[in-house]
């Protein structure tokens, strides 16, 4: 079993930055990609970013490209999401997820069904 714990959410103003963290614990050996998804009120959960465990590729949703950066610290089983130039439409609960397979396909890396373990989520609210 793997547990994921997110942190770093909060209330900020448009244009501000936030850094989310997600740490995996438990049976972490052999895990694949770590990713961030988000769910805004009244909307379906959507892909934000993904990174394979070895960190040699990154995948982003078009809506966050150039503003968000995903990175990982393998030694600490932690993934980060640096969010810059935040917009009100970035307001959502952000979920961390990890897969049991490494994906190097942007299509597979961006699908919810590719991920087996999920965190509880952290709220990000951006005011205009």
What would you note in describing this structure?
Helix content is 3%, strand content 47%. The protein is mainly beta and 128 residues long. Strands 2, 4, 5, 6, 9, 10 and 11 form a seven-stranded mixed beta sheet that branches. Strands 1-3-8-7 form a four-stranded antiparallel beta sheet, with no helix packed on it. A hairpin with a 4-residue loop joins strand 7 (68-73) and strand 8. The model has no long low-confidence stretch (mean pLDDT 95).
Explain the layout of strands and helices:
Layout: E1 2-7, E2 10-13, E3 18-26, E4 34-39, E5 46-51, E6 59-60, E7 68-73, E8 78-83, E9 92-98, H1 106-109, E10 117-118, E11 122-127
Parallel strand pairs: 2-11
Antiparallel strand pairs: 1-3, 3-8, 4-5, 4-9, 5-6, 7-8, 9-10, 9-11
Short description:
The chain has one helix and eleven strands; from the N terminus they run E-E-E-E-E-E-E-E-E-H-E-E. It is mainly beta and 128 residues long. The mean pLDDT is 95.
Element pattern in H and E:
EEEEEEEEEHEE
Output the structural class: mainly beta
Radius of gyration: 13 Å
Number of helices: 1
Largest sheet: 7 strands, mixed
Give the termini separation.
Answer: 40 Å
Shape: globular
Which parts are unreliable, with pLDDT below 50 for 5 consecutive residues or more? none
């Amino acid at each position: 079993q793997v547990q994921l714990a997110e942190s770093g959410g909060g209330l900020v103003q448009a244009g501000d930055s936030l850094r989310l963290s997600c740490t995996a614990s438990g049976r972490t050996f052999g895990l694949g990609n770590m990713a961030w998804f988000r769910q805004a009120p009244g909307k379906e959960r959507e892909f934000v970013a993904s990174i394979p465990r070895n960190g040699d590729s990154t995948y982003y949703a078009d809506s966050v490209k150039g503003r968000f950066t995903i990175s990982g610290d393998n030694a600490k089983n932690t993934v980060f999401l640096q969010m810059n130039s935040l917009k009100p439409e970035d307001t959502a609960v952000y979920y961390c997820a990890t897969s049991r397979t490494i994906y190097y396909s942007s299509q597979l890396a961006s699908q919810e069904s590719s991920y087996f373990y999920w965190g509880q989520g952290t709220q990000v609210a951006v005011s205009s």
